[in-house]
Amino acid sequence: MSKPTPISGFPEWTPAQRMIEQFVLDRIRATFELYGFAPLETRSVEPLEQLLRKGETSKEVYVLRRLQADTDGPAGDDALGLHFDLTVPFARYVLENAGKLQFPFRRYQIQKVWRGERPQEGRYREFLQADIDIVDRDTLPAHYEAEMPLVIGDALRSLPIPPVRIQVNNRKICEGFYRGVGLTDPEAALRAVDKLDKIGPAKVAELLAETAGASEAQAKACLALAEISAPDASFADAVRALGVSDPLLDEGIAELTAVVETAAAHAPGLCVADLRIARGLDYYTGTVYETQMIGYERFGSVCSGGRYDNLASSGNARFPGVGISIGVTRLLGLLFGAGALSVSRDVPTCVLVAVSAEEERPASNKVAEALRSRGIPTEVSPSAAKFGKQIRHAERRGIPYVWFPGAEGDEVKDIRSGEQVAAAAGEWTPPRADLKPLVGPATAGA
Amino acid sequence: MSKPTPISGFPEWTPAQRMIEQFVLDRIRATFELYGFAPLETRSVEPLEQLLRKGETSKEVYVLRRLQADTDGPAGDDALGLHFDLTVPFARYVLENAGKLQFPFRRYQIQKVWRGERPQEGRYREFLQADIDIVDRDTLPAHYEAEMPLVIGDALRSLPIPPVRIQVNNRKICEGFYRGVGLTDPEAALRAVDKLDKIGPAKVAELLAETAGASEAQAKACLALAEISAPDASFADAVRALGVSDPLLDEGIAELTAVVETAAAHAPGLCVADLRIARGLDYYTGTVYETQMIGYERFGSVCSGGRYDNLASSGNARFPGVGISIGVTRLLGLLFGAGALSVSRDVPTCVLVAVSAEEERPASNKVAEALRSRGIPTEVSPSAAKFGKQIRHAERRGIPYVWFPGAEGDEVKDIRSGEQVAAAAGEWTPPRADLKPLVGPATAGA
């Protein structure tokens, strides 16, 4: 085999980075469960027709083909693609299992997704998402739109990462406002405003004229709306000051006010009403969310979502939902790239049991067994080399303790301090901070 | 959308089953870490040329294709396939990162794999594997072959599943013995004997004659070897009684004796030397493992692996390894199918906070926040319906407690006993057994 090379867009973390990722996933999952979300995994593949319902993303889909497809295989094998998010599979799952589920159904889902995009900085072709969604049958109370940021705020606050700011908007505000100023194609207007960060206000005004038929005054009003941002319900006054009136606009203002006020009661400073947030995906119908990590704003949102009323429906059955998705790979990719996270060692091991001679290995195994039975991660030395070499084996991995079995009693050495004390495998316990690798923000100079 | 249907071979567990699976994965992972294995995830895709190095499995590979592949995409996109196990990607990872890794390198890896096989009972096209491997540079001490069953024994014993029996053999015994009786193509003989369970001894004898050129006496000797099985080192006497002598055979007997004796010292009854175990994959060169779950023997191995000396090598660099893989989906599929596992409720939620009126929701949110801050999984009621309806909401999900905020103090009701007591959200704690869903073997009649 010639030396293999990385494949662009398919990241692979080091074992140390994977330890950090697992720590992060455990914390996220614990928060999701504290809020009563049940776990779910869906298969990685969906029928292509499901994946292509949203035209915009079709070019990103990876299609599967069996290498030696034969005629006796089940039909339709060629019509499977890898999912590109967890919302579309979840909507499908709800429809397929509606008869067995209890509604409202709260679930979390932490899985890989795949997008065959052209690779670029910060874009991955395979990445991990951590989603929560709540779906209900027929109608979904608006208070769930206010709950989402609380969950995400708690989940991200439990991590050793910079603080985040969740930017919230409501599609009803945009659509109601656009209609209120007399635009007849609010979706086109939304798509134009969605490009504000990328192309700036002048170009958005041009686009509004071209694609949504906006007059100069209408475009100006749309841009004025998009400029509104407030950490509290005062955004509503700013909207009303623009003098536009529409029933859908009023509904959106009331809903967004509830989201911002609920968030302020729970976690002051977490949420900000930001009326430029549009989200590209067509299926959102109410609140939409994006999330900036402070200090990493230029890299875009690390956690996004919104309310969707029409994603899961079949005949008369309709399952409106709201969801939000943490881009775990994206988040970690940014922080790993900045060297902003650290772990105290490269292996889970707390103790390396030395081997004095190969025929004494069973005695070292017994020590390891006793330590493990009390929850202490332990390895036995690979060889009966000189003790200096065995200690270096531990040192290179950051294993803090080396254990020496002895005919007249065992000893354990803290190889950082050099301190060596008598110890019994059935009793000795390391300091709590040494038991497992510690994950945290990288310390200066690390 | 028309009602979607399952896709054969791509299983999806219910949320309750997924809770059981997560419990199982947490336990497996904890054991792997107790033994000092570091976590690793590799990308889901490998270059096709990597996946096809073992000819036998090529028909199982799923190839990826971007739906709208364009000429400006990176070359080679069409030459990617989904991995069909975790050993081949791991070997590739070791070669790619050899300069950055510390050897011997112990890693575990818990990931989905995909095989485009024709679906049949107990066979999946997408399934979860939990692997451990140890690789070293140049040479790998044989004691690691004895360590594998200890880890697996501990991991599986930590689960609420039937006991297992790990069947162990050593390729050197088979190859040495076949050479010792005068067969010149030991691999052909191995492949024939590997079919013993499927086609029986008479057909294997025919196959040995046809494919390995065995005489009647040679075939009889091969079958006699395959019949040897012992829970201890006495298998060696049985082999020697067959009167065949070969240096490789002696080496294999010594190694297998060490594996069986180490296992017996650690976990009596866990391992059995079973000389019919061959494993289909060509890359094994030493100890091989299969695992039967007692009562489910007819479904085949739930945990397999072996030593491979030549999987990861490049130029002069050579990384022999030994590994074993728990077929998590296979294991759980069998137990779910038999109704042999249960979880005490369908959601993580321990407490449902009732809402007396929609305008009182913030008060209920405050209670939930206080309970969650002390680690108690809590949901707030979806609506301010009559309390009877809110209680039924909890009942249907198995949520044990409903909390009633009140102007003159809160109360909490155990809806199983009906007992309702005064409580404060900052102090009340549920019994430990109620805090999280309990996973265990299904009780009779459940």
From TrEMBL, chains A, B:
Keyword Cell division carried by entry: no
Lineage: superkingdom: Bacteria
Cross-referenced CDD domains: HisRS-like_core
Metal-binding keyword on record: no
A biological process term (GO) from this entry: histidyl-tRNA aminoacylation
Keywords: Aminoacyl-tRNA synthetase, ATP-binding, Cytoplasm, Ligase, Nucleotide-binding, Protein biosynthesis
GO-annotated molecular function: ATP binding; histidine-tRNA ligase activity
InterPro entries, alphabetized: aa-tRNA-synth_II (IPR006195), aa-tRNA-synth_II/BPL/LPL (IPR045864), Anticodon-bd (IPR004154), Anticodon-bd_dom_sf (IPR036621), His-tRNA-ligase (IPR015807), HisRS-like_core (IPR041715), HisRS/HisZ (IPR004516)
UniProt: L-histidine binding residues: 85-87, 115, 129, 133, 279, 283-284
The family this protein is said to belong to: Belongs to the class-II aminoacyl-tRNA synthetase family.
Protein name: Histidine--tRNA ligase
Source organism per UniProt: Micromonospora chersina
